[in-house]
Amino acid sequence: MSTTETIAHPKLHHYGLITARLDPMIDWYRNVLGMTINHRFEVPTPTRNRAPFSGMAFVSNDEINHRIVFFEKPEAAAAPAPVPEQRREGPLQHVAFACATFDDLLDTYARLKGLGILPVWAADHGVGTAIYYADPDQNIVELHVNNHDSEAAATEHIKTTQPTLAPVDPEKMLAARKSGASPRELHERALAGDFAPANPRLPQSRS
Asked: What's domain 95-191's architecture?
């Protein structure tokens, strides 16, 4: 029997983004996360003055019908400044997507670098290793991998251990992995500072 006293624990399903640049955003999320369009809709021109947006696109990279929905508003303010020096800031600090393995994370970094998509920051947080990117509207997207053998171990870590912040250079980590370092060794060496970047500032900092 259901009860209003029980918390249902619903899972995160999707989120929505307003953009003035629908096509560049779709292309970026296709390249970075493997998102494909499941449905796209354009508001007919005669009725656009009565609608809160001019178009929508529902995209997903798994079996869920959509993970992100883009709402196109041509009048939406775009952030012209580069990241990280003057990126647009808002209530949503970032959104994260999990990679299954360390190799998936590093291989994605290498693939995106080949496409000219470079990270704005990367770090070992103790509980996980993360690489951060900025989409065409300067929203921050995190790709991360669990540094532990299970989610249960990661949860225990975050409950019992002070947060760690060890900035890393993904290029150095990739080179170490290619030289035979295991994911555990990459994590330990990151905490020791072996992969420290030349400029370890946070992506939110301003010059």
From this structure: Roll (3.10)
